[in-house]
Design goal:
Blueprint (H helix, E strand, L loop, with lengths): L18 E8 L3 E6 L3 E8 L13 E7 L2 E7 H4 L14 E8 L14 E6 L1 E8 L20 E6 L5 E5 L1 H6 L10
Parallel strand pairs: 2-10, 5-7
Antiparallel strand pairs: 1-2, 1-8, 3-6, 4-5, 6-7, 9-10
Length: 183
């Protein structure tokens, strides 16, 4: 599924300062947001098509052949200190992965390709409109130390639901540097 905002409804004057975020779910009981502008698409990946790479961080699941390119696949829940996919009770034969892209301003002349990373999540929910000015710092008692480097804050929806807002660039920066895994 390609991620596109071309089908967005007409925005009201109260939502003019809003940004689109993709809402998804991580176990246990964590609804999360990432800015839509940092994402490319949502994939369904059969578990057997992810090739494990030895000697990597435990949250790096491996690589996947995505349109003829190598896409590194990360268990996002495990990375941020939640339940790893292999410890969850729901046995699945496919994974949902959100393709995260690096911001274009970090590309150098020697690295023209945009960096991409597949983030395995439990399920993709919807697109949310959120005013970034309403993203707040979370209560320190509710944040695990593993989550802190990737946390942008939280957004309290009008219905009272709290959504965790992650920073895609921080997630991308956590990946091992290319010299550690290139041939």
């Amino acid at each position: 599924m390609k991620i596109s905002s071309s089908n967005s409804p007409i925005l009201s004057s109260s939502s003019l300062n809003s940004t689109e975020f993709l809402q998804f779910y991580l176990e246990p009981n964590t609804t999360t947001l990432l800015p839509l502008q940092q994402l490319t698409e949502v994939l369904t990946i059969p578990i057997g098509e992810i090739v494990p790479i030895p000697h990597m961080s435990p949250w790096v699941m491996g690589v996947y052949n995505w349109r003829g390119d190598i896409l590194w696949i990360v268990d996002l829940g495990h990375l941020v200190g939640l339940a790893p996919w292999y410890q969850q009770t729901n046995n699945v034969s496919v994974h949902k992965a959100i393709v995260l892209k690096a911001s274009g301003n970090k590309a150098t002349s020697t690295n023209i390709k945009t960096q991409m990373l597949g983030l395995v999540v439990n399920r993709v929910e919807d697109i949310e409109l959120c005013n970034p000015d309403l993203i707040q710092s979370p209560p320190s008692s509710s944040v695990t130390p593993e989550l802190v480097p990737f946390l942008r804050g939280y957004w309290l929806k009008p219905d009272g639901e709290m959504l965790v807002v992650l920073d895609g660039e921080a997630i991308m920066a956590a990946m091992p540097k290319p010299s550690n895994y290139e041939q």
